[in-house]
TrEMBL record:
One of its GO terms (molecular function) is dynein light intermediate chain binding. This is Dynein heavy chain tail domain-containing protein. Coiled coil: none annotated. Signal peptide: none annotated. It comes from Cervus elaphus hippelaphus (European red deer). InterPro entries: DHC, Dynein_heavy_tail.
Length: 644
């Protein structure tokens, strides 16, 4: 302010707090004082509203201000007030109301305009350096947002604000393109939504799109604050709002799909799924979604059973890892306990007769099932600990594996006796007890055959037979890997039984061939020319009647043919050839019908020809004795030609 001209109106501005001046805090944060009426008046208001509150009441300043000076300041304020009152100055009218500040504010605007021009110039230079970087450009406008809102600066930065609006429009387009490319993908994939930690797919997708919403919201807020006067603002705002609507629709679709999937699978009682459902319900509720009543009810039940779910998970971990805790040689000793534990897991049935699976809806039955599982797991774990302890004790007492040699030999001999007995029984009925071989009886290339072929069946049977014979070579007993086995001599000791099993094998294949021969008569008609056969042998009505009756009888006999034949360990499926036989009989039937039609048509043609020729002869009226004789001769010939 230029003080040289005393005629100028002098204004003094006090900024009460270290804050950025805005339209909202202008009247509360700036005290405007004038020398128009009296310097005493100005001094009084400065002391009363600026210095006294700061030096007498503010803790930071009053603590370090001399008390004597504080008293003097208080006395100054009081004295100035008395002087003003004596001079009948109405102090209350000296407070600036909002309407009274318009002139000072206008004056303030004029005074600060050159400063704003300089600021605008510096901002233009700064923005020109970073305008190629959208992120830096955005950060610059955010940093100096309050300055850019000033009318003068906003007008000066018109081009820069246009650039910012273009960048924001590009950002919205990028958000839209990114969303459209990822919204249908799998979270975490290159073409899917970005993946967060410990989030299910539906929650992850909604959180991802919410993050995009926040980014678009931020761009809208920035544009509304700084760019609302620009011509392209409306187009930008409409595009951004449309994108937000698209995000909201995607959110709702994700939630609706999740609701449908969950409600269609509410009978799933797996604890892991319920734990995930509980987490999803909690997270979706936090995101503001209203959970359907059925799902909320299940989630409430799951909340009750959360403890049981954790126990079940621990039991499952125990079940999957117990084999690693067992000593290899002790596993057979724990077989019964392990099978009992496994049986409880597999037969998770509830109710009478065990018809329904245990679900989370019945706390009592669930608690009982978990208790059974825990008891079985504890028995198995206790037995394992006991066996491991004994093993450790034996090792600590110096007990060596070599000390077990005689004991192992004893048990190997006992095992040998039991195995040989079973081996001999198996050899006697080997053809019945080998793994079953499935065979199809088919009609192919004009002949009956097996599928797989006969030789392949034979080779497979002998491979299985050889595997059974060599079982003693594979049996190790309770000896160590390097010990000589006593079981391999079992094969030589029972070699006399091999003649029997080979003899039975050949008999088995003879019976297999017989099955094929039993069906050969049925496919003979498929190996001849049916049409030529019918034309050769069928000429009278009796011929057709006899063949139609025979076909009907054969059709019933085919129905009685077995669909499957079992020859010891061979299962022969006869349905393929039965289907072929049915087709052949139907084909022969169609051929008989066709040949009968042809025969009838030929006979009708013969009759028609005879009638036509007879009418031509009989319509001639004889005029003489000679013609009468000739007519009688023609009549005799017609009688001879008359079709039967």
């Amino acid at each position: 302010i230029d003080f040289a001209d005393t005629k100028d109106k002098v204004l003094v501005f006090f900024k009460l707090r270290p804050e950025v001046i805005t339209d909202q805090n202008l009247h509360n944060n700036i005290l405007v004082s004038s020398m128009l009426e009296s310097p005493i008046n100005s001094l009084y208001h400065a002391v009363r509203q600026v210095f006294a509150p700061m030096l007498l009441k503010d803790q930071e300043w009053s603590r370090n201000f001399d008390p004597k000076l504080q008293n003097l300041l208080s006395e100054l304020e009081a004295g100035l007030g008395i002087v003003l009152r004596r001079s009948d100055t109405n102090l209350s009218k000296l407070k600036f109301k909002e309407d009274d500040t318009r002139a000072p504010v206008s004056q303030y605007e004029k005074i600060i305009a050159p400063v704003e021009q300089k600021i605008a110039g510096k901002l233009k230079n700064y923005i020109s350096e970073i305008q190629d970087s959208p992120q830096q450009l955005l950060q610059a406008f955010l940093k100096y947002e309050e300055l850019v809102k000033r009318p003068t600066i906003s007008k000066e930065l018109m081009l820069e604000r246009e650039t910012l609006l273009a960048r924001l429009m590009d950002s919205v387009k990028d958000f839209r393109l990114d969303f459209e490319n990822r919204c249908r993908g799998i979270p975490g994939d290159a073409s899917g939504p970005l993946a967060g930690k410990n989030l299910s797919e539906v929650v992850n997708n909604i959180v991802w799109v919410r993050q995009l919403e926040l980014k678009v919201d931020d761009t809208i807020k920035i544009a509304e604050a700084l760019l609302s006067d620009l011509s392209g603002f409306r187009s930008f705002h409409r595009s951004a709002e449309d994108l937000l609507d698209q995000f909201k629709l995607y959110e709702q679709e994700q939630f609706d799909d999740w609701s449908r999937d969950i409600q269609s699978g509410l009978s799933d009682s797996k604890s892991d799924r319920l734990v995930i459902l509980l987490r999803e319900v909690r997270q979706l509720s936090a995101l503001g979604f209203v959970i359907p009543a059925k799902i909320q009810q299940v989630a409430n039940v799951a909340q009750k059973f959360c403890k049981q779910a954790i126990i079940l998970k621990q039991v499952a971990h125990f079940y999957n890892s117990i084999d690693q805790q067992m000593i290899q040689s002790q596993r057979p000793m724990m077989l019964q306990s392990a099978l009992a534990f496994e049986q409880i897991i597999k037969n998770s049935k509830a109710g009478s007769g065990g018809k329904s699976h245990i679900t989370w809806d019945n706390p009592k039955e669930l608690e009982g099932y978990i208790q059974k599982l825990q008891n079985a797991a504890e028995r198995l774990a206790t037995e394992n600990r006991k066996l491991r302890k004994w093993h450790t004790t034996f090792c600590e007492k110096g007990f060596q594996a070599s000390d077990m040699h005689a004991w192992k030999q004893h048990w190997n001999h006992q095992l040998y006796k039991a195995l040989e007995h079973q081996y001999q029984m198996g050899l006697e009925a080997l053809n019945e007890n080998l793994p079953e071989i499935n065979i199809d009886l088919i009609y192919k290339q004009g002949r009956l055959q097996f599928k797989p072929p006969f030789e392949e069946i034979r080779a497979k049977y002998y491979r299985e037979m050889k595997r059974f014979i060599s079982i003693p070579n594979q049996f190790k007993g309770v000896g160590e890997a390097g010990d000589e086995s006593i079981f391999s001599i079992m094969i030589d000791r029972n070699a006399s039984g091999f003649l029997t099993i080979f003899s039975k094998a050949e008999d088995l294949f003879r019976r297999l061939s017989a099955v094929l021969h039993q069906h050969e008569e049925w496919i003979v008609i498929g190996q001849v020319d049916m049409e030529a056969l019918v034309e050769k042998h069928l000429s009278t009505v009796h011929d057709w009647e006899k063949n139609f009756k025979a076909l009907k009888i054969k059709g019933k006999e085919v129905e009685r043919l077995p669909s499957a034949v079992k020859v010891d360990c061979l299962n022969i499926n006869c349905n393929p050839v039965k289907t072929v036989i049915d087709d052949l009989i139907q084909k022969l039937f169609d051929m008989l019908v066709l040949s009968l039609k042809k025969s009838i048509q030929a006979h009708l043609h013969e009759i028609d020809t005879f009638v036509t020729e007879a009418l031509e002869v009989l319509t001639i009226m004889p005029q003489s004795v000679e013609e009468i004789g000739n007519a009688n001769l023609q009549y005799s010939k017609l009688q001879e030609r008359k079709p039967e």
